[in-house]
Specification:
Oligomer: single chain
Mean pLDDT: 78
Largest sheet: none
Number of domains: 2
Low-confidence stretches: 100-105, 111-123, 125-130
Distance between the termini: 63 Å
Strand content: under 5%
CATH superfamily of the largest domain: lambda repressor-like DNA-binding domains
Number of strands: 0
Structural class: mainly alpha
Helix content: 40-55%
CATH architecture of the largest domain: Orthogonal Bundle
CATH topology of the largest domain: 434 Repressor (Amino-terminal Domain)
């Protein structure tokens, strides 16, 4: 079995051959596993909204997230693109939205932030309710 470095070097050699005109085309990498729930959560969507938006059946989403089934290669490819660039998929699936600029299809990406404890008050954020700085 090849090391990761050897795999990367093989890939770089393929790119060089392609750019030099010695090789036509390329082989796409399709991940063996895709975390559907993580992708869906990052987009801030319910299972139903995710299935409606991207054209998957609700049952498929439930089975994939429950570990009872694994997405086939074409679904893993689409899920990978959704993970990296959901807007591109939305535009491709709904070209009318791309033409009509007054219509906006958006995906809310939820970012997780560490919550600050209410007890931890620093000089920088020690303000009274009126907005004035509280002297320590």
């Amino acid at each position: 079995m090849k090391t990761q470095f050897e795999q990367m070097m093989d890939g770089l050699n393929d790119v060089e051959s392609f750019l030099a005109g010695e090789q036509e085309g390329f082989k796409a990498y399709v991940p063996q596993e895709v975390d559907v729930k993580a992708i869906r959560n990052r987009l801030g969507m319910t299972q139903a909204k995710f299935s409606d938006t991207f054209g998957f059946s609700l049952d498929a989403i439930k089975h994939w997230e429950g570990g009872r089934r694994t997405p086939e290669a074409p679904a893993r490819t689409l899920l990978t693109v959704i993970d990296k660039n959901p807007g591109a998929v939305l535009t491709a699936l709904n070209p009318a939205a791309a033409i009509d600029s007054s219509k906006h299809i958006g995906v809310h990406v939820r970012r997780h932030r560490k919550r600050q404890s209410a007890r931890r008050v620093t000089k920088r954020n020690a303000h009274s309710a009126s907005g004035r700085r509280v002297a320590k």
